[in-house]
Each structure stands twice: as structure tokens, then as C-alpha cells.
Design brief:
alpha+beta, 5-stranded antiparallel sheet, 25 strands, Glyco_trans_51, carboxypeptidase, Penicillin-binding protein
């Protein structure tokens, strides 16, 4: 049909235009799968960015991010003019003059390349097209992409087409903003905001000309010109960018000379981007959202969500400060317990042979060295015992030491760890979550992943079962030796004879409240015998314990492994009138445009009769109010006054491996666990290792600081009055010790109200003895 055109010039022109149209259509349609994918009109209108999701506390404090590419897009107005000038001067001086493809720039770059000055000809718009739509990635290539000579030609042509589409859709300012929000700056920093925070701890609108030149200079080679890895190369490249800025008139000659002499002056220790992204809380929320993400088909790593937790940042900070203060002292105590002895011991107290070597064999470096030295274990251990410089975690901060791998292994396995959680018992909102002492060194979360023997903190489920079986807090049992004969799962007969913690028996009748307050194993065992251990297991599960519980006579003494999360949830059931609430860690989620796409509320279920639930809170108060109650150490802190009431329970597992404290107030339920991850490493005695000496001080110190900030919603006061009629007898005061101190002696009066007997003892005055010490 072209033969009809008589003019050769016109004819050839039409042939070129027609051929170009055919090529464009073929590329766009991916004809015969030759050209690969090209961005559609929809892609151009709605370009997809992988945007990091942000994690906030309930009071809007940023505490972490989830990302594949750490990207946080910003608007044009939030970008420093220095950044824009540096980018245009270096990458595309004719940016505001072309329509996506700069043919003048292409010709100029070709001439420069022939002269030995290799320069790229891609415009900012073309580079944006490449970043947004992956035009050079394998998945964008068609069959022609496998032919080396044609691959680059097809790719470039697609970039040109995409660049023209972008220019027809967006303004220049929108294009340059999109470009700066998409480019990579190494160290997993994507986009100008992530980069400016990562390298200079500044927002992108606050960057100086020299700082801007450093970042824009990286675009030529993010590894080669990385200011952290190659500072000399980075300065060299920065100065080239500054020279280009001078050449294009963005800075003066004097400014260039001044800026080019400045040091890099990096500030990479940005807390917003650093430590918060490596935390137990961030990991816990990630796990908590797994099911929701799967159901909704939303990837929290790329969707740019704003996720609000139920955590109160101020409470969390108080808890973290308390942990640091208390755990430092506890670690010193454990170290002093063993001094120069090996701390890993079996039940009999004997050193476990080969303990450290067995741990070393599980290290990745051990396997690598064994392969390198052809299975010569003796040689490998010789290398592992050679000192070398390293950084280790201590409570004084990361410390540079000269230590062997075996010594560092001993250091880490001998560290005490902890888990702490606090929750509003009425709405299920978790306020504090501390999974351990340091997430960088100990990834295992001791709130919901770790499960340890609960010890006496499990006893309230025994007493609740007793109440549900018709007993009353005033019912009495005798503190005496007890023997339980039972048949185990293997059908074998066994005998269980529990002893009290002090190995003594008072042979005294005690109310249920007093017995639980003193945490007597003998009376707990008798109640277990009378109500049945199967029922105790059922009660615990109903209240919130979800772990498997072996139904054995010792179940009430906390012989099973449970988590801090479960224990806090179960104790909250007592405070919430017998209604079990599901703890929630996330309250709301917003999408990238600010629209709320999810909100979470707890669910509740009545699992305990309200009368029995209230009686359990009354009995938990007994550990502080009853004589020799196990929580009376709380009086050493400023926790009372204003008629404040606290209930709680200590717990210690066998051989002082685990220390627990569970505390309840009118506003908050909290649980604390302390112990070594290696259960063969423990304290030696009750004076150093029981829950009242390890976990209770953490709870008490936290609550003392929390009460100083009533604006956080946790205040002193009485427990709520019962909302139902209490028909069971519960007000049966135990024998009290009343002290009257005359001038020459101390008179101690024991009022045994249950027997109507009064005993008056006169003690010699003890110089320097406080009245409250005598009372205790």
C-alpha cells in the first residue's frame, strides 16, 4: 500500500511510523510472549509501592516497623530543596525540559562516552519506570529477553514507553517525588525518608546540601559509595555531586569549597529505626496478626499499615526500667551464689558433666569448624577455647572483652531471664509486654513462648475448685503431714507425701484463706484429695490456662508448665467477676490512606460464679493481710495508703529454678517470672531464689512507680465491692499479733479469735529493732 505514495521521503516516513506503531502494539500486547510484561494504564494510575507498616502504642508512640523494603513515602513539600537540586544536577539536568525521554541527553552521553567519560542517558522518569515496574527484572522479560543483543534494546524501549506514560499522567513534581520514594539507599533503606533517618537521623526536609550530596551520590553505587562501609569513596562521590550542583548554579563556588571540606558527620544511631525494630513486642504483634493477615489477604510487610497496639508506652517504659534495675541485682546475686563454681547442676546438686560442651555442639560455628577440620572435635574445641575480641551483653551495656567462644557461651547460659505482662482485667487490653532481658541476644519470648513450672501461683485454682464444691473461705483444715495413695497412668501404685516449704507442720487448724495466704502444701494437698485433681485441671482450663496439664495429685502445687500470658489471663478472671476475657494486643489497624480497616475487641465468657470469683479476690488479698502471708514483703514498698488493696501470690518451683509473682489490683493484673533458660542453673536456697525474693520485687517496684503517675489510669483504692450477694462465710480473722511497746519492754499480744484465748508475751526491748519488724 506504500507504493501508492509517489514521494520516497513521505513513503519511507510512513513506513517508519507504521513500523513503530506495530512495534509499540506488539510490545504492549506482549505479542507471542516475545516482549514480556509492560505496565498497563491501571499500573500507571495506581503504581504499587512496597511500603513498610508502622507499629504504634495506644498513645501513638512509634515502636517498630514491618517491611521487606523499609520505605516510608513523603510528599514533595517534605523534601529538602537541596535533595532536589542534587538529584537534578547529577542525574537529569534537563528534567523539566523533556517529556520522559531526553534524546538530546542521549546524544550528549554518547559523545561523552566516546571521549572516555562514561555517562548514563536515562532520565529520572526512565529510572522511575524501572524502579516502579521492574522493567529490567527477569519476570518482565519475554522470549526476546533471552537473546543478549536484543534484551537491552527491548528493555530500553519499554522504559521509554513507560516514561512517556508517566509524563502524560503526572506532573514533574509528582514524578521526582515518586522517584525519591522508590530508590534504594542500601542498608535496607528504601526512599529518601528512610535514608535520611538511617544515615543522618534527620527528616528529609532538614538535610543540608552536603548531606543531600552524600545520599544522591549513593545512587551511582549504593555499596561502593556507602558512607558507612566506604567513607572515603562516599566523600569523593559527594564532592562530585557538589561540583555538579555548583556547575548548574545551585550552590556558589565558595559554598562548594566549604561543603567539600566537611566530614561526613553521620548519625546512624537512630533509635526510631534501630532498637525498636528488634523487640519482643514487635515479634509478638507479628505473630498475633498472622491469622488476621492470612484471612484478609493483607501483607503487613508491604501494605503500609498503621498498627495500634493496646500497650501503654509509659507503663511499658516503667516496666522496662524496673526490669533493668532489678535484674541487674538478681544477676549479681546468682553470680555470687556460685562464684567460681560451675552452676549447672543436676537434682542432687552434682555438676552435670560435659554440659557446656554439649551446648557448644549445637552452635552453627561448631558444625562449620567440624567440616573445616574434617571431624576433629578435639581441634575444634581447642579453637573454641582460644580468646579473641568480642562484644558481649552485660547489665552495664555491651562490653568489649577478650573471651573465648566457650567462655562467652558460659556467660550467656548463666544469665537470668524474665517475662512480664500486665493487663486490664475488664477489657483484656495488654498494657505491658516484656518478653526477656534483651531481644537481640535472647529471641525466645518469656511471656507467651516460654512455659515453666508455676509453683504456688497455681494454688488459687485449687482453692477456687474448693469453693465451687461448696466450701467456704472460713472452712478449716489442719496443717499436718498428708499421704496420698494413687494409681499413675501406667497403672502403678504411687504414694505422694508433700512437705511444706519450711519442712515443718504446725498442727494447727487454719481457714482456707489463711492456708492459701501462707501457701501451705499440706493443706493444698488435702483439698486436692477432697475435690479431685481432675476437677482442678478443669477449673484452670476454664479460667484461662490453655497448656496441657497432667492430672496428678501435685497439680495444685504447680508441677505443670504454663506461660506468663496464661497465668495473667486466668487471674484476670477472678477480678472480672468470673468472666474470662481474651487478651488483646492490637486495637486498631489503618491502611496507607488513613482509613480504619480493622478494630479488635475482647470477647468474654462467664466461667466462674460471680460470688466465688469475688471470694477469690478476697482470698488473694489474704497473702498480704493474713499472718505470715507470702506477699507481706510488699509492705517494704510504698504501695499502700488511700485504703489501697493488693492481692497476689508468690510461686517457686522445685530447687528454686523458677520464681513467680502474680499481682492483682482494682485496675491491673500483672505476672512476673524469673529464672535461667537453662533449668539446671538456679539459686541454692529460699533466701536467694524463691519467688518472693526474685519476682515479687520486680512487681512491687513497678507498681510503686506506676502509682506515682495516676494519669496512667492505675490508682490506689479498694477492690470493687461484690455485685452479687455473698452467702458464704468469709470474714473469719486469723490469729493476730498485736504489739504494745512500753518504755522498758515490748508486750506482744496474740489474740486467737477462733479459740477466744488471749496470750500476752513480754519481750525484752531490742535496741534498734523497728516495731514493724517485730510484727512481721
Amino acid at each position: 500500500m506504500f507504493k501508492r505514495v509517489k514521494s520516497k521521503v513521505v513513503r519511507y516516513f510512513l513506513i517508519v511510523v507504521y513500523s513503530l506503531i506495530l512495534v509499540v502494539c506488539a510490545v504492549q500486547l506482549n505479542f507471542l510472549w516475545l516482549f514480556g510484561y509492560s505496565p498497563t494504564k491501571k499500573d500507571i494510575v495506581l503504581p504499587t509501592l512496597h511500603i513498610s507498616s508502622e507499629l504504634y502504642t495506644a498513645d501513638s508512640v512509634l515502636i517498630g516497623r514491618y517491611f521487606e523494603e523499609d520505605r516510608d513515602p513523603v510528599d514533595y513539600d517534605s523534601i529538602s530543596e537541596n535533595i532536589l537540586n542534587a538529584l537534578i544536577a547529577t542525574e537529569d539536568v534537563r528534567f523539566y525540559k523533556h517529556n520522559g525521554v531526553d534524546f538530546i541527553g542521549l546524544f550528549s552521553s554518547a559523545v561523552s562516552t566516546l571521549r572516555g567519560d562514561k555517562r548514563g542517558g536515562s532520565t529520572i522518569t526512565q529510572q522511575l519506570a524501572k524502579n516502579l515496574y521492574r522493567t529490567r527484572y527477569n519476570q518482565s522479560q519475554g522470549l526476546l529477553g533471552h537473546i543478549p543483543g536484543l534484551r537491552m534494546g527491548v528493555t530500553k524501549f519499554k522504559e521509554w514507553m513507560t516514561a512517556y506514560k508517566l509524563e502524560s499522567k503526572y506532573e514533574k513534581n509528582e514524578i521526582i517525588t515518586m522517584y525519591l520514594n522508590t530508590v534504594s539507599f542500601s542498608n535496607n533503606a528504601y526512599g529518601i525518608k528512610s535514608a535520611s533517618l538511617r544515615y543522618f537521623n534527620k527528616q528529609p526536609n532538614a538535610l543540608s546540601a552536603a548531606e543531600s550530596a552524600v545520599l544522591i551520590g549513593m545512587l551511582k553505587g549504593t555499596t561502593l559509595y556507602n558512607p558507612i562501609r566506604n567513607p572515603d569513596k562516599s566523600i569523593e562521590r559527594r564532592n562530585i555531586v557538589l561540583r555538579q550542583m555548583q556547575k548548574e548554579g545551585y550552590i556558589s563556588k565558595e559554598q562548594y569549597q566549604s561543603f567539600s571540606k566537611e566530614p561526613l558527620d553521620l548519625n546512624v544511631n537512630n533509635p526510631e529505626r534501630g532498637g525498636t525494630n528488634d523487640s519482643y513486642l514487635r515479634t509478638a504483634v507479628e505473630k498475633w496478626l498472622e491469622k488476621w493477615s492470612e484471612e484478609k489477604g493483607i501483607d503487613i510487610y508491604t501494605a503500609g499499615l498503621k498498627i495500634y497496639t493496646t500497650i501503654d508506652s509509659r507503663m511499658q517504659q516503667l516496666a522496662e526500667e524496673t526490669i533493668v534495675k532489678q535484674m541487674k541485682g538478681l544477676q549479681e546475686r546468682l553470680d555470687n551464689t556460685w562464684r567460681n563454681e560451675e552452676p549447672w547442676r543436676d537434682k542432687s546438686g552434682a555438676i552435670i558433666p560435659g554440659f557446656l560442651e554439649d551446648k557448644a555442639r549445637k552452635l552453627p560455628i561448631f558444625a562449620a569448624l567440624m567440616e573445616q577440620h574434617k571431624g576433629d572435635e578435639e581441634k575444634v574445641f581447642q579453637l573454641l577455647r582460644e580468646p579473641k575480641k568480642m562484644k558481649i551483653f552485660t547489665w552495664e551495656g555491651d562490653e568489649e572483652v577478650e573471651m573465648s567462644t566457650m567462655d562467652s557461651l558460659k556467660h550467656y547460659v548463666s544469665m537470668l531471664n524474665t517475662g512480664m505482662m500486665a493487663m486490664d482485667p475488664y477489657n483484656g487490653k495488654i498494657k505491658v509486654w516484656i518478653g526477656g532481658i534483651n531481644h537481640r541476644y535472647y529471641k525466645f519470648d518469656h511471656v507467651n513462648q516460654a512455659k515453666r513450672q508455676a509453683g504456688s501461683t497455681f494454688k488459687p485454682f485449687v482453692y477456687l475448685t474448693a469453693l465451687e464444691n461448696g466450701m467456704e473461705p472460713c472452712d478449716q483444715y489442719e496443717d499436718k503431714p498428708v499421704r496420698l495413695d494413687f494409681v499413675n497412668k501406667q497403672g502403678e501404685k504411687e504414694v505422694w507425701e508433700p512437705k511444706n516449704a519450711d519442712w515443718n507442720f504446725s498442727y494447727r487448724n487454719m481457714s482456707l484463706r489463711w492456708a492459701m495466704a501462707r501457701s501451705l502444701n499440706t493443706i493444698t494437698a488435702q483439698i486436692t484429695r477432697d475435690v479431685g485433681w481432675d476437677k482442678i485441671v478443669e477449673t484452670a482450663h476454664r479460667c484461662g490456662i490453655e497448656s496441657h496439664l497432667e492430672s496428678v495429685p501435685s497439680v495444685g502445687l504447680g508441677s505443670n508448665d504454663v506461660s506468663v500470658f496464661e497465668m495473667v489471663n486466668a487471674y484476670a478472671t477472678f477480678m472480672n467477676e468470673g468472666k474470662r476475657v481474651e487478651p488483646i494486643l492490637v486495637s486498631e489497624i489503618y491502611d496507607n490512606s488513613g482509613k480504619r480497616i480493622a478494630s479488635f475487641q475482647t470477647t468474654e465468657k462467664q466461667v466462674v460464679d460471680p460470688e466465688n470469683a469475688w471470694l477469690m479476690t478476697y482470698m488473694l488479698r489474704g497473702t498480704i493481710e493474713e499472718p505470715e502471708g507470702t506477699s507481706q514483703a510488699l509492705w517494704e514498698w510504698d504501695l499502700f495508703g488511700h485504703e489501697n488493696q493488693i492481692g497476689g501470690k508468690t510461686g517457686t518451683s522445685s530447687d528454686y529454678v523458677d520464681g513467680w509473682y502474680m499481682g492483682v489490683t482494682k485496675d491491673l493484673v500483672a505476672g512476673v517470672w524469673v529464672g535461667c533458660d537453662e533449668q539446671s542453673i538456679r539459686f541454692k536456697s529460699s533466701q536467694t531464689g524463691e519467688g518472693s525474693k526474685t519476682a515479687l520485687p520486680i512487681y512491687a517496684t513497678f507498681m510503686e512507680e506506676l502509682y506515682k503517675q495516676p494519669e496512667l489510669g492505675v490508682t490506689k483504692g479498694k477492690f470493687p465491692d461484690p455485685k452479687v450477694e455473698i452467702n458464704k462465710k468469709y470474714n473469719c480473722p486469723s490469729p493476730r499479733i498485736r504489739i504494745e511497746v512500753p518504755s522498758d519492754s515490748a508486750a506482744v499480744e496474740l489474740d486467737t479469735e477462733d479459740s477466744g484465748t488471749e496470750i500476752l508475751l513480754t519481750l525484752p526491748e531490742v535496741e534498734g529493732t523497728e516495731r514493724n519488724e517485730i510484727e512481721r
